[in-house]
Design goal:
The chain is α/β, with parallel strands linked by helices. Helices cover 25% and strands 19% of the residues. The protein contains 3 helices and 4 strands; from the N terminus they run H-E-H-E-H-E-E. The longest helix has 12 residues.
Length: 115
Amino acid sequence: MYQDDDDPWRFASSPYERDKYRTTIESLGSARYARCFEPACSIGVLTALLAGRADEVVACDASSRAIAKATTRLADATNVQWVTAPIPEWWPSGSFDLIVLSELGYYWIVRDGAR
């Protein structure tokens, strides 16, 4: 998806996405998190907001192009660890007090015919 377009879903420019991210962050209240995991982080738009709320963010995407764009976007964010890997095949070790699954679950194929 990122071959011809750095932001194919318009995460950085869509009013819908901006509102969704605002609602996501507002739903966290005033809490601060020690460790956050964001699978399918794409180009890091939501990651930037999560980095302001967590001491450490592990952000993962299967696309190396998306991770490269995200890394550039958040060049000053020293609390973000970037991982290029497919989810759910790869999952980080350790525990998290916040995991953000933003529009990801419906991409997973359920095995054994269940949906």
